[in-house]
Amino acid sequence: MIVYSVGLGPGDPELITVKAKRILEDVDVIVVPQSDQTGRSVAREIVLKYINEEKIMMYYFPMNNDREELKRRYYDLANKIKAMLESGKKVCYVTMGDPTIYSTSNYLTDRLLSIGVQVRHIPGISSINAASTMLSIPLCIKGENFGVYEMPSDVQRTIELIERHPTTVFMKVNKRLPVLIDAVRKVKPASAYLARRIGLDGQCIYDMLNGTPPPEAAYLSVAVIRRRKKWTENMTGHKI
Length: 240
Ligand SMILES: C[S@@+](CC[C@H](N)C(=O)[O-])C[C@H]1O[C@@H](n2cnc3c(N)ncnc32)[C@H](O)[C@@H]1O
Hints:
10 strands; 5-stranded mixed β-sheet; elongated; alpha/beta; 2 domains; Cobalt-precorrin-4 Transmethylase, domain 1; Methyltransferase, Cobalt-precorrin-4 Transmethylase, Domain 2
């Protein structure tokens, strides 16, 4: 009994892998978990570029933070998937970006494994990669490392994290954008951008060192902060 956990990439339907597309075509049921009953599902829209609606099974999670309720729902979905596999159906579930990065698929995978279902992951292009490549900012070059964090709530912590790596990525920026902008203006890195809704309608790039900040970032926003000026400068030993 194997179910596929498929990464759909950051939003542009052309940024799913050939393997992900093949599995979407091959399975009988594509489970699309969604946490908002009213909102559009970007994942569903990507799947629909390749597959007919009939194969899609939407599964809604409540928006509230009731952990017990969420736990029950994950078990419920895991049991439903197991039952479909037992009846001979081929099943996959999908997630935006990569399934192992800040993804609800991680919880579902955990429940499936606990009830004896094997999960095979199909990696997806993460919003981290989509942002850094769109901005042409290296995440890391030889001898460097980079950090990825959920956006902290306070400025001092944000400054510490920015100063920890040559490049720092913040995810889930949302309402904490003013904290980030404050930290960025104190650190004065070489570049600091917010990439919003990459590959989707409303995509925009915001330069946090120059310009007026929007009051808050969109839900789908990633910030990439690079302390060093040019990637070549590190290679020649110059410290910025
Ligand atoms: C629940 S996490 C999912 C991350 C996803 N698994 C990945 O690999 O990119 C949601 C966060 O991912 C980022 N994100 C996902 N898709 C994005 C996009 N198209 N544009 C900008 N940020 C995105 C945002 O930081 C958002 O708050």
